[in-house]
């Protein structure tokens, strides 16, 4: 089953880590997110949206890409429509590039979309290059982060039975209620292992070495 990159219109720094993460993936662009295609070395197979944020130069440069045109007056964002298109093509893993930064409402919506996708069995990474978010639901997750990376766990639905290993400040079977800042600003010491018994949220990581 294929991995898909969905190009969204948020911030992007094409780091070597992000380039490695997207390499070999199929891609779908959402409106102005097509502007990230060249920097990531991707050739999207579909361009989705109402095209209100894709300027004429961008539309000319990628005129050869098939389009799925939607009206401006619609119930879903161009990004979610692009995600649906990827799932319809059999995506079993998604990377939402340009999902972070910019408007707070868009960023939070993307984080919650990532949680929903993981609940539905589709692992999803959200990234701007310098910042990446990993949705968390009950289960065990191992993340390959460079030692010294700063990371925070956001309990969007509270965390029950949360254990974190491979970090400077580990936890074992902790209860972290909605709105708590207890799990902000930790540091990776190696592979980060997270176990969650109940609740949901996201792990936000900055995969650049930090200092204590």
From TrEMBL:
SUPFAM superfamilies named in the record: Thiamin pyrophosphokinase, catalytic domain, Thiamin pyrophosphokinase, substrate-binding domain
Domain of life, per lineage: Bacteria
Alphabetical list of CDD domains matching this protein: TPK (cd07995)
NCBIfam families: thi_PPkinase
Keywords linked to the UniProt accession: ATP-binding, Kinase, Nucleotide-binding, Transferase
The protein, known as: Thiamine diphosphokinase
GO biological-process terms attached to the record: thiamine diphosphate biosynthetic process; thiamine metabolic process
InterPro entries xref list: Thi_PPkinase, Thiamin_PyroPKinase_B1-bd, TPK, TPK_B1-bd_sf, TPK_catalytic, TPK_catalytic_sf
EC numbers on record: 2.7.6.2
Location of the Thiamin pyrophosphokinase thiamin-binding domain: 139-202
Single GO molecular function: ATP binding
Entries under PANTHER family matching the protein: THIAMINE PYROPHOSPHOKINASE (PTHR41299)
């Amino acid at each position: 089953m294929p991995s898909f990159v969905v190009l969204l219109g948020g911030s992007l720094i094409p780091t070597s880590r992000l380039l490695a993460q997207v390499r070999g993936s199929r891609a779908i662009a959402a409106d102005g997110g097509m502007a990230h295609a060249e920097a990531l070395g991707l050739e999207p197979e579909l361009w989705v949206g109402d095209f209100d944020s894709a300027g004429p130069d961008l539309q000319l440069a990628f005129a050869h890409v098939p389009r799925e045109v939607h009206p401006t007056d619609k119930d879903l964002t161009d990004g979610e429509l692009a995600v649906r298109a990827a799932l319809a093509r059999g995506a079993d893993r998604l990377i939402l590039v340009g999902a972070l930064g910019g408007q707070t409402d868009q960023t939070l919506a993307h984080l919650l979309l990532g949680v929903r996708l993981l609940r539905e069995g589709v692992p999803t990474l959200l990234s701007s290059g310098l910042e990446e978010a990993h949705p968390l639901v009950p289960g065990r997750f191992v993340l390959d982060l460079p030692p010294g990376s700063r990371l925070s766990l956001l309990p969007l639905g509270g965390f029950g039975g949360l254990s974190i290993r491979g970090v400077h400040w580990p936890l074992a079977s902790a209860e972290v209620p909605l709105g708590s800042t207890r799990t902000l600003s930790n540091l990776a010491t190696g592979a980060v292992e997270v176990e969650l018994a109940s609740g949901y949220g996201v792990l936000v990581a900055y995969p650049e070495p930090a200092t204590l």
